[in-house]
Fold:
Amino acid sequence: MAQIRSVTELELDSPFLVEGLPGVGLVGGIIADHLGETLGMSYHAAVDCDGLPQVAVFDEGVHDVQPPVRLLADEGNDLLVLQSDVPVSPKAEGFVDCLMGWIQEEDVTPLFISGLPTRPEGKPSIFGVSTGDAERLLGDIGAPEQPGVVSGPTGALLNEADDRDVDSVGLVVETDPQFPDPAASRVVIDEGVAPITGIDVGTDELVEKSEQITEAKKQLAKQMQDAKEESTTATTTGMYG
Structure:
C-alpha cells in the first residue's frame, strides 16, 4: 500500500517541507543533507510510494537500513526535509499523487528546489515561483526574467501542487550543469529557505567543505547525467535564453 509511513511520533504544526530530490547541480540534495546534519534532524518517515526504486540504503557504523526516499524532521522548527539517495522518475505518478495527498492531509507547505544549468560569474542568482496563495512567502526573492520550464520530478510535483491549488514555493537557482554545486545550495538556503521558514542555520561550512561535498556527490551526479528525465532541472524558453 502506497503511503508515508511514520517511524516517530512528532507534533508538527503546519510544517514547511524542503524538497531535496536529485537534480542538476545536486542543489536540493546538498541542501537536504546540510539541513539534516546541521539541525540534527531525525529520520521521521519512510516514503513508500508507488514508482520509487525498491532498494535499501545503509550507512557507515550502523546496522539499520533505510528506504531510499525518506522524511527527516525537526520538531522545534516545524521543519521537514525530503531526502533521496536515488533518482526519481517524473513518470512515477504514484509517487507524485502519494506525496501531494500527504502534503494536503498534513497541512504542509512544500519548498521545491531546482537548478538552472548555467555557469554564473560571481554569486548565483535565485528566483521564485509559487502555487496557491504562496506568493506572499517569496518576500524579496525576484520573479523569473524569462519564461521557462521546471522538469523532472520537481516539475511534476509543482504541476500537481498547481492542479490541487496547494500553497507551494519553487526556488530556482543558477548552478553548474555538470558538477555538484555547494555555492548554489548556499544561496538557496540563505536567500530562500531560511527567510521563508524562519530557521537559523549557518552555511559557511558549505563553502569550507565544498571540495569534499563535490567529491562525495560525484557518483550521484553521474547517475543524474545518465538519467536526464529523472533530474530536477529548470530551463528557460525565451528567445534570448
